[in-house]
Amino acid sequence: MNKKTKLIHGGHTTDDYTGAVTTPIYQTSTYLQDDIGDLRQGYEYSRTANPTRSSVESVIATLENGKHGFAFSSGVAAISAVVMLLDKGDHIILNSDVYGGTYRALTKVFTRFGIEVDFVDTTHTDSIVQAIRPTTKMLFIETPSNPLLRVTDIKKSAEIAKEHGLISVVDNTFMTPYYQNPLDLGIDIVLHSATKYLGGHSDVVAGLVATSDDKLAERLAFISNSTGGILGPQDSYLLVRGIKTLGLRMEQINRSVIEIIKMLQEHPAVQQVFHPSIESHLNHDVHMAQADGHTGVIAFEVKDTESAKQLIKATSYYTLAESLGAVESLISVPALMTHASIPADIRAKEGITDGLVRISVGIEDTEDLVDDLKQALDTL
């Protein structure tokens, strides 16, 4: 089945009762039992399961070529549920330029419960091997990473994890299942901040997880039910609806990304451009081998913070806001926004400079986006 068709039909079902083509919103907390323990379609209480949530969970499992899906109230809630697979004293390895929210959760929350954390340069898989301890239980990578779009070899990472008995996890938010499927490359768990591309319209906060491992799925289901960070029916419906247009959106975004990068590389006010589609980008060949397209996130450097602020004020079609993956183009300064929770010395070490600008390309007209960003850069 072609991926575009899969987005419409994969995992989606019509309503058994009415035949409704779209997923109904089951706005209920509990369900009638015909007798004690005699459940209709297995539904008992909406923290445990809800038909609307079940629909989006089926969809993400299908799109990621997995067997089990789980929907959470945010991307960080999804990440937290996955990290809860670990026990006190366990060690987790993550890529060094991980998303600020992930960094904050791991270093400020989970370390308090005895989880040990190391951030390493996973673009070189030898660094992963060197960081493994007897207590290491999980390898967690973003590829491309946020915000510098660094690429990690998914297949090699999965092989290393299996060799050392680690649970392997990929945050696939930037690529979506339309362009990259980590489970097919041997990864145990794939997750998304579905707030971003999957929802796609800046109107839902959600997280999704998929796996083909039955034992991990059983544990994740227990964690989801026990901790309660589940996705509500209204947001589940919005997510199911948003996913159906993912292919159309990603293809338009990709067309614009190529043209915007060309302009950025030629502009004198831009010191460096970061994107895995660029041939000189570290691990470009790896990215092209493991993905079918590109993320709509581009990072580039201007002189300093003041230049970045001036640039943002001069744009018309780029909205100053955190997040990414929406129909509207967004612009931000990671050091002051999404990655502000990371200490300045660590940001500097990882190359997240004060003049780094991150844009998330939307589905506006390509020429309008190129021209608007160029005229803003011309003011510097």
From TrEMBL:
Co-factor requirement: pyridoxal 5'-phosphate
Keywords: Lyase, Pyridoxal phosphate, Transferase
InterPro entries listed in its UniProt record: Cys/Met-Metab_PyrdxlP-dep_enz, Cys_met_metab_PP, PyrdxlP-dep_Trfase, PyrdxlP-dep_Trfase_major, PyrdxlP-dep_Trfase_small
Keyword Transferase tagged: yes
GO molecular function, one term: pyridoxal phosphate binding
Entry superkingdom: Bacteria
GO terms for biological process, alphabetical: cysteine biosynthetic process via cystathionine; methionine biosynthetic process; transsulfuration
GO CC annotations, alphabetized: cytoplasm
Protein EC: 4.4.1.1, 4.4.1.8, 2.5.1.48
Family indicated by similarity: Belongs to the trans-sulfuration enzymes family.
Entry-linked PANTHER family: CYSTATHIONINE GAMMA-LYASE, TRANS-SULFURATION ENZYME FAMILY MEMBER
Protein name: Cystathionine beta-lyase
Biological source species: Staphylococcus aureus
